[in-house]
Amino acid sequence: MKRTFVMAGALALAALTMPAKADKLDDIIASGTLRCAVVLDFPPMGFRDENNQPVGFDVDYCRDLAKALGVEAEIVETTFPERIPALMSGRVDVAVASTSDTLERAKTVGFTIPYYAFENAVVANEKSGIESWEDMKGKTIGATAGTYEAIWIEGRLKEWGAGEFRPYQNQADVFLALSQGQIDATVSTVEVAEANVKSGKFPGIRIVDKAPMVPDYVGLITLREEYGLINYMNLFINQQVRTGRYQELYRKWVGDGEPADLTVKGVYR
Amino acid sequence: MFDTALTVNDLLFLARGAGMTLLVTAIAVGLGTLMGIVFGVVRYQVGPWWGAPLTFFLDIFRSIPLLIQLVLANAFVTTVLGFRVSGFTVACGVLSLYTAAYCAEIVRGGIEAVPQTVRRAARSLGMSWGQDMTHIVLPLATRVALPSWIGLALGVMKDTSLVFVVQVVELLKSTQILITRLQEPLFLLLICGLFYFLISFPIARFGGYLEKKWLAND
């Protein structure tokens, strides 16, 4: 009799100390809120409008995910270095924050398939006659010194053995030089290119082609062990592309071109 | 001519931030003072030996930086205990305990400042402990404690600028949001400082006024 009593006590204690373990997907649905970490000083992915409300591609993407889950979206502003700590300390459920899917990060957090990719565009002066990226051969090309795209184009020009490379201190100088015809073309991320063309500050330039560089793929992230949620989000990203919402958001926030292809040829995932 | 992109809308946004700062301060100072009075009286009454656990508990809140307290408390409540509470609740809870820890010391100091002879006189007139506390100790101790308490309230108001770590958009966070958008850091910080001054100055003056008024009655 006494032993059963002790056993019952031990069982009750075990039940008390053991946390009720539902996975994060269940938790989010049960709580009715999806908390997304979004970086809000990174237009057009995340920024604030004139009413200081968060807007941008990532903000809409989080809202779409919340809608799919049937819950409310809560945008939690984080900086780039704070994204993963916010996730680990439980302040947010997922980060929709343009996170590049590096293997180093994947040791800490769980990545979904890419939901966006940062590509590079060739922007040319209209008078230069450049129609595709190969036309840059033999032309004067400028870029911001030391950037990934500058190193890439300098390498191409060397390879072709024709053309001149001009480094500049910052992006604004590059576009000014391009607009004034001092250089024939430049290579920059599509988002920057679109924003500069749209701004109207640099007349006579246009986006002619995408540069064939490996895009910077970014994924949604959550805790490494939350397979249920990662699985759900993978399907969600697939549906976003399938339903055309991905293109719609791209047109809304980035520009009129085609959004990046999120698959890599010759390999799964 | 001085040029700024700041709009009336943005000023209202800052004012809402200031409102949040005031709200968090009011809750923290209100609850903190109530708890501080209870803790302070208990500590005085039970003596250093029996009061040791309480002293230790309060010392935790006094010695760990508030920023760390906020982050850890938030993680503990939401992740370990699994409660979905708002950052606002966590901020108010932590700041109240933080205020209480300081207030308890102020209260204890105030009580100790009342001369033992006065209290013995009160008891020998037949007053109960409660009557002694409310009619003798309370008015005398309040006069001693008021300046420190005003200082504490103003300190807590400025400490609320840390609650942004638990997603509460108060005055300083609102300013940072505008700085990110408008890229006018010095001008915006100037305005933010002005807002802080506008809400702290009346409290400081009110304290001065009370002190003067009570002095006249002595």
From TrEMBL, chain A:
<feature type="signal peptide">
    <location>
        <begin position="1"/>
        <end position="22"/>
    </location>
</feature>
<keyword id="KW-0732">Signal</keyword>
<dbReference type="InterPro" id="IPR001638">
    <property type="entry name" value="Solute-binding_3/MltF_N"/>
</dbReference>
<feature type="domain" description="Solute-binding protein family 3/N-terminal">
    <location>
        <begin position="33"/>
        <end position="257"/>
    </location>
</feature>
<dbReference type="Pfam" id="PF00497">
    <property type="entry name" value="SBP_bac_3"/>
</dbReference>
<protein>
    <submittedName>
        <fullName>Polar amino acid transport system substrate-binding protein</fullName>
    </submittedName>
</protein>
